[in-house]
Structure formats: structure tokens, C-alpha cells
Amino acid sequence: SHIRNAWDPSKSVAQNLAEMGLSEDPNKTLPIPKVPGVEVESNGQRPGKKIVRKPYVVNEMEYEASLPEKKSNTLSRDLIDYVRYMIQNHGENYKEMARDEKNYYQDTPKQIKRKINVYKNFYPEEYKDFIASLKTEKMDVQ
């Protein structure tokens, strides 16, 4: 979005990128020496380099890249419903869960147990509340 906002449609791609301080061709910007043992200049810049007229674009992109990534780890609604159904109908009996008709993907008992553990780790509070509600339902039935 930063590049899009600073883009000038009347100029070429190379001119726009040069004004922003970005490279059109990284091979030309940082050339790899053909002869082993010969080093490129220490700062990697060539003499006669164009002036950067829009340095704020690179600064904004660097700032955005330095921000921590938001963790959006969630489970699919289908998996949550599947795990809740299995626990509600079979409790801790994984072999019976594997034989259940809702086990569409034919998961083995160990695979079902892993899915339940993933659900427990992602939503520990929700899992505790769900188990507590199951216990109260069983008490009401008896």
C-alpha cells in the first residue's frame, strides 16, 4: 500500500522504484563478483547513484516489517464441532469414537485423541466449561 500511494503513473517502473529507494533489479544493485576472492564495495553502492526523493516509503515499509506478527491460531468450526460431538457421545473411549458414523475421515483412535488434545490446548477454558456442562447433564439425567 505504501508503494501504491507513492506511485506516479506518469513515470516508468524503474523511475518510480528509484525515487522510492527500491531496486528494480537486485542483480544490478548487489552484483555477485565473477572472480573468487574479489569483494564488492563495502556499502554495495555504485558511484553516480540516483537521489532518493521518497525515502518515507522505505521507512514505512521497514516499520511495518518490524511490527510483531499477530497470532491468529484458531481451529476450524468443523473440527470443534467434531471433537465436541465425540466427547459428548463417547467420553474418553477413543475406540468407540473411531467406529462412530460421524468419523467421516476414518481417523484412528490415536488421531482422534490428538485432535481432542489440540482442541484442549487451543481452548482450555472452553474445554473445561464443556466438560463441566456434560457432568451436570449426566447428574440431571440420573
TrEMBL record:
The keyword Transport does not apply. Pfam families: Nop16. It comes from the Eukaryota. GO terms for cellular component: nucleolus. GO terms for biological process: ribosomal large subunit biogenesis. Belongs to the NOP16 family. This is Nucleolar protein 16. It comes from Scytalopus superciliaris. The gene is Nop16.
